[in-house]
Amino acid sequence: MKRKLAAAIGIAGIMVSIAACGSDDGNEGSGDTGADAKELTVWLTVDAQNNWPELVKAADAAVQKKHPGIKINHEYYGWPDKNTKLDAVLATDKAPDVVEMGNTEMLAYMVNGAFAPVDPAKFDNSSAWLDGLKASVTYQGKTYGVPYYAGGRVGNWRKNLFASAGVKSAPKTYEELTAALDKVQKKEGDKFSAWYQPTRDWYAAMSFVYDAGGSIATEEGGQWKAGLSSPESVKGLTAFKNVVDTYMHGDKTKDESDRYIVYGQGKSGMIFGAAWEGATAADPKNDKTGKLRDNLENFVMPGPSGKNLPVFLGGSDLAVPVKSDAQAVAAEWINAFAGSSGQKGLIGKGNLPNNKTDLAPLKNDPATAVPATAAESSWFVPMAPGWGKVEKAQILQTMLQDIGTGKKSVEAAAKAADAAIDEVINAK
């Protein structure tokens, strides 16, 4: 899921002793460390407790069958307070053995040595993990976690509104999309946003950058270098600016945090966001039109390149703290929970799986075809030691606001962003 990235400064003070415990032996981590453990402590968010407790019990049963008599403890936390509690316990000798992390939360902890490396070969379908999720558990060539489940981004529009402008079906190409938007924009007038696209929404903007062959930053020789001012990235940013200039007639200093609420007000025709946003906008408490529930339609976002627009892939990962004294059994529990059988259960609960093998059949099911197809093409943030500082400084958001409001040209804003990124992206 999209979660707030824990800034490295928040955990740096407790990581000195943790880093000394880490393994430098490659991807295998501690091997058989804790293979005979008598107790296991698993931290998950309340999502598992409320929505799929039977999958937790099934994983417990699988581990207990192999390790008779082992005691498995579970603690559940809400997203807002989980990391505060985790940071505190990691400074002690009572760390949990398995912990759930939002995939954007992983990097700061990996950089600071909080998690033990794991061997991907020990986990089901690891060779087919979704690209965006695989990136979130990988740092400097080692794997420090296991993808749990995924959530993607899709287009969503008011099909009745587009039908009234003569558009009968969802777009398959970017040309079809812009032609449809042009018709709605002309019909509804310049106070209406045919596409409500918040200017500071860097998740959407970077999708255009990656679609054009650009990137936020790339690594070479162990050093990261910003790439937003490259010709490819500028091409993508220009395409994003064209969307904002042409179809977004709201406040061009806003971010995406309340997009579903704005969408529910009925003054826009389309959004590009998390798959849940359309349904949430149609909730009676948000739908000010009273007509959204039966008239919203998700679709796979086409990109200007002619391919599906690559999307930021959110989700959760499972990691083993380096201070765990039951690392081997913890890995077994993770595979029992998020492996092949667990993925079937998670799919049944409406999640996207962590791998392309299980994702493929979902593309043929009308109920899941759109998010499953969209998730195939994804991108993730640079796994650089200073990425947390980039996010904290809101460098991308500032660049996009300067572009969207016309304060700077695309080229000038991108160059300024690159300079700001280069100052911090390689610093722990």
Automatic annotation (TrEMBL):
GO terms for molecular function: maltose binding. Belongs to the bacterial solute-binding protein 1 family. Residues 1-19 form the signal peptide. One of its GO terms (cellular component) is ATP-binding cassette (ABC) transporter complex, substrate-binding subunit-containing. The keyword Transport applies. It comes from the Bacteria. It comes from Streptomyces luteolifulvus. Keywords: Signal, Transport. This is Extracellular solute-binding protein. PROSITE patterns: PROKAR_LIPOPROTEIN. One of its GO terms (biological process) is maltodextrin transmembrane transport. The keyword Transport applies. InterPro entries: SBP.
